[in-house]
Design a protein that fits this description.
By secondary structure, the protein is mainly beta. The chain has one helix and seven strands. The structure holds zinc ion (2 copies).
Length: 119
Amino acid sequence: MMGVDQRREDLDYSQTFICDLCGAYGRMNVFAVYSVLSLFFLPVWKWNRRYYVEMSCCHSLYELDYETGRGIENGTVSLIDEADLTLIRGNRSSYKRCGYCGYETEEDFAYCPKCGNRF
Ligand SMILES: [Zn+2]
Ligand SMILES: [Zn+2]
């Protein structure tokens, strides 16, 4: 019984941040993804570890610089710099929030369906 899996591990880290994409005050959630080979359901080999950051505001996803990710895991890095992030999935186009009434939508409206103001 051998198998290869992708696993996700949330790191105990969060940082508040003004989101580049949606402009909201969001939280960065850091997690690691790695491949694991298991033998009789016991992990015997882990490799290909990568780190990602997900924004709590609009769920945009960034890849985090490997060294920074390791540093966060080991407690030697306490701040993520924008230069450490590479955008993978931005939700700028699919997520809008009305600046007048706070209405949130994923539709591509030019005007807010609730109050009629322009997004
Ligand atoms: Zn955002
Ligand atoms: Zn509105």
